């Protein structure tokens, strides 16, 4: 079956089909994947206690130019949520 017929039946463009076949090699997507891997590694390194502000600071120390909102979005995509440390009650 020709791919043009299949694309019409599925309601997708032929350009999308070729992009899907060959993969998206954009530099933006590659950077986002690398940043997502870094966020996951930093989150694991700090045993899940660091949130977006601290991970952003660590990423910037490593030379990444990234905003806190971007890190927060990546953490949300991966389902990463920082655990609050228990507070000591001075009684």
3D structure, described in words:
By secondary structure, the protein is mainly α. It is 63% helix and 0% strand. The chain has five helices and no strands. The mean pLDDT is 89.
Please supply descriptive tags for the structure shown above.
single chain, 91 residues, mainly alpha, 5 helices, elongated
Short description:
It is built from 5 helices and no strands. It has 91 residues and is mainly alpha-helical.
β-strand percent reads under 5%
Secondary-structure element series? HHHHH
Q: What is the CA–CA distance across the termini?
A: 76 Å
Overall residue-averaged pLDDT value: 89
Weakly predicted, low-confidence segments:
none
Shape verdict? elongated
- Number of helical elements: 5
Largest sheet: none
**Total number of beta strands:** 0
Helix content: 55-70%
How large is the radius of gyration? Answer: 20 Å
The chain-level structural class is mainly alpha
Outline the secondary-structure elements:
Elements (H helix, E strand, L loop, with lengths): L2 H8 L3 H9 L4 H19 L6 H10 L6 H11 L13
